[in-house]
Amino acid sequence: MKICVVGTSCIGKSTYIQDFLKEWSMYKTPEKSYRDIISEKGLTINDEGNEENQKIILNALVDQAIAYSKNDNVILDRCVLDNLAYTAWLHLNGKASDKFLDETRLIVKETLKMYDVLFFFPITKFSNIPLEDRDTRNTDPVYREEIDALFKAFQASYLASDGRVFPTDDSPPMIEIYGNREERIKLTSLYINKDGKAFGEDQSLMSDIYMPPEKKIIVP
Q1: Does 136 score more than 80 pLDDT?
Q2: Among 16, 43, 119, 211, which is most exposed with the fewest C-beta within 10 angstroms?
Q3: Distance between CA atoms of 11 and 178, rounded to whole angstroms?
Q4: Phi, psi of 18 (to 5 degrees)
Q5: How many CB atoms lie within 10 A of CB 196?
Q6: Least reliable range by pLDDT among 6-20, 69-83, 118-132
Q7: Model pTM?
Q8: Is 210 helix (H, G, I), strand (E, B) or coil?
Q9: Is 158 left (phi over 0), alpha (psi -120 to 50) or beta?
């Protein structure tokens, strides 16, 4: 299964992946990431980004999505949806064109079909936000909140199934993960079983708490 961890910077995604791999040791994470591309090419990113650099990063994230099949157990730190969020911010601030934003959106929409689950880390009052490892991260609180707001707009689009960002025919679920380190893993275990597979509709842990009346089995 191909899992992606998405959200604004400095919210504990990398720490979460470390904890995830301890709990689900059958998973792996790539040794090389988009951050290596940024470092190798000396790209400017975040609020100093531009269309050219965003395109390079997007291509790297698409290549990463292609490199792993849905039969692989892999957890990825960021994906193409993150690229769209940062490109959308550049567009809102006059640093990226309408054409570039729409081209990015279409590529992202198609690439999202390659993932099985997106775990979204929003800024909430329940978030425990570490600020370590700041090499490529913008820690400005206003900027981080603006990026978070864009992710929440994508989430609203996903929930509405409006087809603007997520494909309507083959979309991965976008699931919120929040809390401290232990709580995040416990919340994840509601969706991923001990064997590393997603709970099916007929075996979800939540089915013990709620089951629609038409699906309840009455034993005489």
Answers
A1: no
A2: 211
A3: 9
A4: -60, -45
A5: 16
A6: 118-132
A7: 0.86
A8: coil
A9: alpha
How high is the pLDDT of residue 127?
59
Instruction: Give 171-206 pLDDT, tens digit per residue.
Output: 999 999 999 999 999 999 999 999 999 986 444 444
Reduced to 3 states, what is the DSSP secondary structure of residue 204? coil
pLDDT score at 138:
56
CA distances from 58 to 55, 63, 127, 206, 218 (A): 5, 9, 28, 36, 52
Structure token digits, residue 218 = 């009455």
Contact status, residue 76 vs residue 2, Cβ threshold 8 Å: yes
Neighbours of 91 (CB within 10 A): 17
Pairing relationship of beta strands 117-121 and 2-7 according to DSSP bridges: parallel
pLDDT-above-70 percentage for the chain: 84
Q: Which residue has the tokens 């290596």?
A: 36
- Residue with the two structure tokens 């978030």: 127
Residues 37, 173: Cα–Cα separation, whole Å: 28
Q: Which residues pair with 4 in a beta bridge?
A: 76, 118
